[in-house]
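Thread title: Can someone regenerate the structure for this chain?

I was given the following input by a collaborator and told the matching structure tokens would be attached. They weren't. Posting the sequence so someone can regenerate them.
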Amino acid sequence: MAESSRKIEAVDQYIFGLPENIQEITSALRKIILGASADLTEEFKWSMPNYSCNGLVCYLQASKNHVNLGFHKGSELMEYDTESLLQGSGKTMRHLRVKKMDEIKPEEFTVLIKKAVNLNGE
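Best answer:
Regenerated them for you:
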């Protein structure tokens, strides 16, 4: 299924309502997420974009100065986080914080997203 056909309007509207620099980061992260796995479904839950495949995988949470790419089972991804990008100390969730476009690392982010999808398949 094409990436564009998997985008939902609620997420389009969410992104449209963000400050311009944050819109750019959020859109770029959305593209990486949808490109990482054709099995991911985009949803709008808890006032933010969420992506699932056999359960919740990741989410995008925008704020005024940054965007978090969060992983619902992030604590299980730590061993694959070779760049030490994941932050957070909760029981299960972890996130990547992106403040500028040049902080986006498509290859590393894609690896983590694919591993997160695999966690739900196991």
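The chain has one domain: 4-121.
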